[in-house]
Amino acid sequence: MRAILIRFAVPTLIAVSILAFFGVPYVDRILADWFRSDVDMRAQLVANSMEGSVDNFLENDDEKGLARYLASITTDERLMAIALCGADAKAVLSTERTPPEISCAILRDIGDRGSSLVKLANGSVEVSSFPMGSRNGKALTALIIHDLGFIDRRQSSARNYVLALAGVSASVLALFLGFVFWLLIRRWVNELVGDIRGRRFLDDARSEPGSRRILTQIRRVLREAETSQRLEIDFHENWTPQALQQVVRDHLGAPEVFIVSNREPYIHNAGPSGPVVQVPASGMVTALEPIMRACSGTWIAHGSGTADRQVVDAHDRIQVPPEDPSYSLRRVWLRTEEEQGFYYGFSNEGLWPLCHLAYVRPAFREADWQQYQAVNEKFAAVVAAESGSKDPLILVQDYHFALLPGLLRERKPRATIALFWHIPWPNAETFGVCPWKLQILTHMLAADILGFHTRYHCQNFLATVDRFLECQIDHEHMTVTLGGRVCRVVPYPISIEWPPRWLASLPDVNTSREAVRARHGIASSVCLGLGVERWDFTKGIVERFLALEALLDKDRAARGKITLLQVAAPSRSRLPAYQALQAQTLSEATRINEKFGTENWKPIVLIDHHQEPREVFELFRASDFCIVNSLHDGMNLVAKEFVAARDDQDGVLILSTFAGASRELPEALLVNPFDVSETAAAMRTAMQMGRDERRERMKLMRRTVKENNVYRWAGRMLMDAARMRQRQSLTKNILEL
Ligand code: GDG
Fold first, then answer.
1. Does 201 score more than 70 pLDDT?
2. Ligand 1 mean position to 565 CA, how many Å?
3. Residue 266 gets which letter from DSSP?
4. Residue 215 backbone zone (phi > 0: left; psi -120 to 50: alpha; other: beta)
5. Closest CA to 112 of 94, 89, 92
6. CA of 107 to the centre of ligand 1 (A)
7. Which of 672, 666, 616 is nearest to 644 (CA)?
8. Rounded distance between C-alpha atoms, residue 449 and residue 720, angstroms
9. Which atom of ligand 1 is found nearest the CA of 628?
10. Nearest CA owner, ligand 1 atom 26
11. Contacts with 517 (C-beta within 8 Å, 6 or more apart), sequence order
12. What angle (nearest 5°) sits at the alpha carbon of residue 655, between those of residues 652 and 657?
């Protein structure tokens, strides 16, 4: 508005000044002409009224009386003097204030009925001449001299008045025009902003006629820019950390970047000789770290390591990565009851089972919800305190922080907020059982971007919002508008780095096979199946044991020919559901091993502790098939890691249709993990599949994972955030027009 007014006021004032510069002298002249004709009329009146009296004085030859009479007339402020001139243009009589510069000689110029403006040293006078009686038979002429000083005074006040009037009217006009223009622009902008924020394409029939062409142009430019950016993303084949950093530099315009996650990218634990740093095996860290390195951003996470407090500075910050410090890790401390309610309680006993259809009943406890809210508040306050800019880019990770977008929006209304939900989103009916669904949904929708792994999860989210909230949903553009704010719901399938860094230190596949088999006592003739996961009820570990049992029950020839090596890394072990799962897994493995095992062969080898990433990749390379039969999984990175590890183009992947990864890897043997016979059959197919078919399938899967690596995942999200920021700044610029 201010800009609009300035843009109107300045030209208007310039126009008025030009007008005044040329107009005021003209006004002066008109006024002067008016006043002079007024004075001439006055002089005529004076002459008329004098005529009889002057005649009398002349007839009576009363020169003194005439002088007195004329003096009495010229007491008037404006009538300055009167002179009587003889026929020889010589003064017969003149009153006291007759200016010395004026003599009867003027009659030669103006005659006995004329007038003239005479400029004197101290002002102008108007001299008018009239025939006025006779003396000694000779006609006399009266010169009536009016002081025009009052005209100058009047002209100057009239000039001031005209200028003031022009100034005031110009300002009022400028304000009025500015206001009308602003209203018009606002109307267009509101239409445009709707478009820009992706709410919908405007129905042009409802647009202002004057705005249509401009809106159409702007839309075209926006669409073209978007299309070219999308093409850039889609046809960018070689996504690397450098390409990601390039995206940050070229498209984001150096914003302040924050990542908020529960898990920290570097954990310091107490070791025998001081703190030891650990890098958690996490695709998220791999994907997001290049962004942080490029922007020198701040990663805010729960400080959960036993030596975390020892290594931070006075502001709870530490520069990471340790070998090349380039961004800041800000640790947030949680009290035991906070961690219990927020992490174990609401996040992992509430939301985790709610979002995974694994038939474990979610537990919703009011006390956990209170802690969940409090911890989300705590993180929001930390982000706000760490951020110095008005419009930071904040990338929020996962279901631990569903409330964060709303809480951040209150503190940073102009921030660009993206929340990525790493787990599935259930259907509306399932989500509906959550007692705090409305708070969760409304807070999530305060984000600019909500990311899920698959389009199906996005659609579930939109259906949930549709069921429970009064809002506007655009299914074509996948946006939700709530309270005038637009949130885009977008699928971003997460992935892994390519090539995985651990491969560089591993020997060839045959050496890995031999090493692993020797370590676990598995003969070279035995088909080695592999499972690697966190020990979680969603991963289908027990179900795959049952499938192996079914295979061995049904196909006696398979006995002694197949071993399932299962890595189960303990996770959330203090929760009853996880303890029960661990107990069940151990007892099922024991039961099946006792049922079928021989002196030289065990159907199941269970590694019930965390492995180093290098060891995990060695297992991938050593195995004949990898089984990922999750009951429900947002994506599942194990499937992609197995494919990436097989640079020998061999190995079979068995993959659950309920894992997000199955959308990208249809060349895997897809199974319904709840169908034990089908999973058993898939194991047998894996055992029997010919080398050519294995290669064919593996080649296709490797191409997919290579092209759709984790840098592409982050790059797409960042490009969308960048586009959103460009739109926001466009909107802001238009509003500031
Ligand atoms: C969530 C979603 C989504 C496993 N055991 C060990 C170990 N791992 C590594 C794997 C893999 C990672 O952990 C597990 O990733 P997943 O994707 O399979 O599953 P979640 O942990 O449930 O992750 C999931 C993911 O978020 C990303 O968005 O795909 O759907 O549930 O990298 O290799 N790593 C090491 N030792 C082990 O014992 N080092």
1. no
2. 17
3. S
4. alpha
5. 89
6. 117
7. 616
8. 8
9. 18
10. 422
11. 523, 524, 526, 528, 622
12. 150
- How far does the centroid of ligand 1 lie from the alpha carbon of residue 37, in Å? 102
**Coil, strand or helix: which one is 282?**
coil
Ligand 1 binding pocket mutation candidate from 532, 536, 578 (most atoms within 8 A of CB): 532
Token pair in block for residue 593: 């091993």
Rounded alpha-carbon distances, angstroms, from residue 489 to 449, 481, 720: 6, 11, 11
Which atom of ligand 1 is nearest the CA belonging to 424?
Answer: 30
Nearest CA to ligand 1 atom 21: 534
CA distance 116 to 108: 12
Mean pLDDT score across all residues of the chain: 90
CB atoms within 10 A of CB 487: 24
| Inter-residue long-range contacts of 242-246, CB under 8 Å, 24+ positions, other chains counted | 243/711, 243/715, 244/290, 244/291, 244/294, 244/711, 244/714, 244/715, 244/718, 245/290, 245/291, 245/293, 245/294
- The Å distance, Cα 307 to ligand 1 centre, comes to 24
Residue 163, token pair as written in the block: 């200028």
Which residues, including other chains, have CB under 8 Å from residue 613's CB and lie 6 or more apart? Answer: 281, 502
Contact assessment for residue 252 and residue 718, using Cβ atoms and an 8 Å cutoff: yes
- Percent share of the chain, pLDDT over 70: 91
**pLDDT tens digit sequence for 584-600:** 999 999 999 999 999 99
State the distance from the centre of ligand 1 to the C-alpha of 637, rounded, in angstroms. Answer: 6
Pairing type for strands 267-271 and 416-420 reads: unpaired
Distance 376 CA to ligand 1 centre (A): 24
Atom of ligand 1 nearest to the CA of 569: 38
Handedness of CA 470, 471, 475, 479 (dihedral sign): negative
Residue 78 makes CB contacts below 8 A (sequence gap 6+) with 39, 42, 146, 147, 150
Residue nearest to atom 10 of ligand 1 (CA): 638
Ligand 1 mean position to 566 CA, how many Å? 14
Q: Which residue in the block uniquely carries the two structure tokens 């006993």?
A: 349
Q: What is the dihedral of CA 353, 357, 359, 363, to 10 degrees?
A: 20
> What pLDDT digit, counting tens, does each position of 413-467 carry?
999 999 999 999 999 999 999 999 999 999 999 999 999 999 999 999 999 999 9
Q: Say what the pLDDT of residue 737 is.
A: 55
Q: Which atom of ligand 1 is nearest to the CA of 633?
A: 30
Between the CA of 338 and the centroid of ligand 1 the distance, in Å, is 25
Check residue 245 and give its pLDDT. Answer: 83
Three-class SS of residue 388?
A: coil
Between the two ends of the chain, the Cα-to-Cα distance in Å is 7
Q: Whose CA is closest to atom 36 on ligand 1?
A: 611
- The rounded Å distance from CA 496 to ligand 1 centre is 11
Pocket of ligand 1 (CB under 6 A): 281, 283, 422-423, 494, 532-534, 567, 569, 610-613, 616, 633-638, 641
